[in-house]
Amino acid sequence: MDLPEQAARRLAEERFLWLTTITASGAPAPTPVWFVPQGADLVVYSEPNARKIANIERQPLVSAHFNADPEGHEIVVLHCRAQVERGVSVAAHTEYLAKYREGLAALGQTVEQADQLYTVRLRLTPRRVWLGPEAPAG
């Protein structure tokens, strides 16, 4: 899918996004996550027992969005299909480590510890994009 410039820019610049899955009771469950673009997809790593994993396995349609700017603009919502991939290695994903190595250290985690904890990769494939209202001119 070709993303609008605003969405592509936010994917390149942002460090976090909100991943919203659906619980067994049908409630939305937003969770802030680290991500990296990979081809047409977004990649997120997770612990295998995280609630979002069970939610996605039951219902793979999810949304991902960024915070709006202080005036309520710059809204980007991606409607995605999520795929769960188990038994993966964070340490083998150089782009992810380049972006989040310092974040892992701030959490008191080494790359080796992260590799043991985050053994599930979520592959989010955007299917539709919604952009909020643009800022008024001038």
Automatic annotation (TrEMBL):
Pfam families: PNPOx_N. Keywords: Oxidoreductase. The keyword NAD does not apply. GO terms for cellular component: cytosol. It comes from the Bacteria. InterPro entries: F420-dep_enz_PPOX_Rv3369, F420H2_bilvrd_red/Heme_oxyg, Pyridox_Oxase_N, Split_barrel_FMN-bd. NCBIfam families: Rv3369. This is Pyridoxamine 5'-phosphate oxidase N-terminal domain-containing protein. It comes from Kutzneria albida DSM 43870. The lineage of its organism: Bacteria, Bacillati, Actinomycetota, Actinomycetes, Pseudonocardiales.
